[in-house]
Amino acid sequence: MLNLVDVQTEGNVREQLQWERELLGLYISSHPLEDYKIWLSEQTIPINQITPEMHNKAATIGGVVLESREILTKKGQKMAFVKIADEYAEMELILFPGVYDKSNDLWKRDTIVILTGKISGQDREGNPSSSAQILVDSAREVTHAEVKNYIPNMKRIKAPKIVKPKKKVDKKKVETIVSGNCKVYETELSVEKYKYYLELREKIYEIHKSKNIKTL
Prior knowledge:
By secondary structure, this protein is α+β, with helices and mostly antiparallel strands. 23% of the residues lie in helices and 30% in strands.
């Protein structure tokens, strides 16, 4: 008969969770962020609220390190791609050489971290990406002692606002009314201005009782 050693003692819970993930690929007894939920909810933005439309916005997120992949740049410098997760979603982090050199010991699997960086919502060619990444500026470990002694303040960090892109100018050549002799010139107008122009033209037609407008 196989006797399993009871490791459910304080200080060994984290090690047990590491074993579960290593042996089974998932957590069984609990989740490594179970004791961190309140702290993370008030100190970080939930990962599932970060979207590609927030490109270049600053954000603070936190979670558990799932995996880390170190590579060398063309200049021979070390950088890394790290995947972390909170209780809602996962996200990939990009650590360029300057940041990674100062924090490479931090990115071990199952370490709980908080980090600040810029959101990247574009690929290398500048095209919109289907998922967001974080270009890390700074990061640190969140200890269990820090969380255990934390007093909730009932405040949440808001996700960055999404700035809608300006509407493109309609390339269609349209007419613009010039006051006085009712001459009309061609120019490029937005869709809204073109609609407004049509309304103005109808009013002028009513005033002059004529549609004999010249186009230059």
